[in-house]
Amino acid sequence: MIELTVEDSVAEVVLNAPEKLNALSLEAVGELDAAYHEAAASGVRALVLRGEGRAFCAGRDIAGVDPATDDVHGYLGAVEGLMRTIAAFPAPTFAAVQGACLGVGLGLAIATDVVYVADSAKVGSPFAALGALLDSGGHALLYERLGAHRALDLIYTGELLTGAEAVAAGLFSRAVPADQVLVFTRERAARAASGPTQAFLASKRLIDKLRDDTLWRVIADETREQAELRDTADYREGFAAFQQKRPPMFTGE
User: N or C: where does the chain have the smaller number of CB atoms within 10 Å of the terminal CB?
Assistant: First the structure.
């Protein structure tokens, strides 16, 4: 599912499972982490992350997950490790986001240095339909950029932002027409790859210090809360409804 190419000091990592909107299984999370380590070892000076097909990443692949035995800690622990790998990548990183950018997909974007989104992309928290919790750092991003009221509005309703709306709200770097976002991202990654890499990395370290540990603390809390939700009736119903392609019938329990 994960592909890596390197050309002219730029790595390109591709989520290549368009038939499932590039949703990530635990195995795919491990493959993606390994691709970043391989790219880092190759000495590239910039990296582009993208999704093949009509979506960037629709989140976790839950098609075959049994909520009664779901290893929430194992999966979200692997996602946190992946996000730390992305954030610590030793060169400027860029994401080209089109279509769905949800859940874990949103986490991949959060961990990336610069995110260019298609103006028609769909960004946010669809967890209201699953009986589950927004994870992968989503609470930190939405609260920091949108404030408490708008963040909870999006969480409660499950409504999604377009790429243009997400950029206007300050979530990401820039909105670009959908048919231009990949070319746009590749051009800027190539420009960064020919720039003063050590100066860029110094700025990256300073930004990371300003961000402090809030993101990682929230991710740990999200994992704990998600694990507790696994034992609720609504969590089991949300997963069953998704897998059976029907509306969920929540009871609040």
Answer: C
